[in-house]
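Dear U.,

Please find below the material for section 3 of the report. The protein was modelled together with 2-acetamido-2-deoxy-beta-D-glucopyranose; I have listed the sequence and SMILES used, followed by the predicted complex structure.
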Amino acid sequence: MTVRLSRIQLALFFILLCPVNIIGLWWAVGSPLVMDPNSICRKAKRLAGKQAELCQTQPEIVSEVAKGARLGVRECQYQFRYRRWNCTSHNKYFGKILQQDIRETAFVYAITAAGVTHAVTQACSMGDLLQCGCEATRNRAPPRPPSSSSSGDGVKWEWGGCGDDVEFGYEKSKQFMDAKRRRGKSDIRTLIDLHNNEAGRLAVKLYMRTECKCHGLSGSCTLRTCWKKMPHFREVGDRLLERFNGASKVMGGNDGKTLIPVGQNIKPPDKQDLIYSDESPDFCLANRKTGSLGTRGRMCNSTAMDISGCDLLCCERGYREETVVFEENCLCRFHWCCVVQCKKCLVRKELSLCH
Ligand SMILES: *[C@@H]1O[C@H](CO)[C@@H](O)[C@H](O)[C@H]1NC(C)=O
Ligand SMILES: *[C@@H]1O[C@H](CO)[C@@H](O)[C@H](O)[C@H]1NC(C)=O
């Protein structure tokens, strides 16, 4: 789950390759268990003006940013668990993915920006940050009843509770993730990365749900208070995976400032779509250049016909069956109060592993 990049690689990334500072973030978050903003910032300071500035003025936000990045990788690994590229954060290979402009890169950028938006906003609602809190509702239009209940039943609605201030998380994610290394140098890769960052943030911001609570005597509902909550992060991951599957290929226009969809009669991607410019490798074999670890030894599903099936996952190289026996907690019982006692059971499991 953690990302560690060698120093030399990083130096290279930052001097030559990294237009947007996601890699700076990865580096900073990289060492395991670093939750201490000072240490994140010591590293980030060497990298980029805007990030360093945030570090100096708002270190506690940076530590939420780091949590958000981790949330992003975890979700990436969940969403890609049955695919040839499984979002493994093996250091060298992950860095290679970030340097390209393939669909996988688009997903990583988007889910990271989304994770940061989510984590910072969450911290605001939990009261963990001085800079923000619950959403201010003073100047908002009165809530509309959720479509489920037909309105006009005389129930009064008010904003209340603790709404998530997603606007704050959105802005912080933008400040941190979209910080450019060199100003004014707009190349196509930068445009693509920024687009995907934004798509990730929007996957949180545009899908807020309204939660309400009834107030009134014994079950009557004379007043409802409502507040906005962010979508669960799993939902954000699901949505971005859909965008990954439908990602649009683009190329740079002649002016170097615009992106043009590739292919005829293709509708231009909207803000929530993921975009990429290069075709992905097949990820069948290990290849340092493309950041592919290959699928040898991967667990596959011998009955599934989709990408998790052995044919596709193992790239038709075949697979072997293996029986593994492991211990598991079973027959657990809860004793008042408060212990859970389990027995140990031996469980056999058939595994299919790619050749
Ligand atoms: C992801 O793939 C790598 C390399 O193929 C493998 O070592 C690792 O165990 C996989 N991770 C998961 C969670 O399946
Ligand atoms: C394997 O694939 C089948 C068919 O798609 C599915 O029902 C089953 O749950 C899968 N098994 C695992 C372990 O994912």
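For the text of the report, you could mention the following: Residues 295-355 form a domain with the Endo-n-acetylneuraminidase fold fold (CATH 3.30.2460.20).

Regards,
Y.
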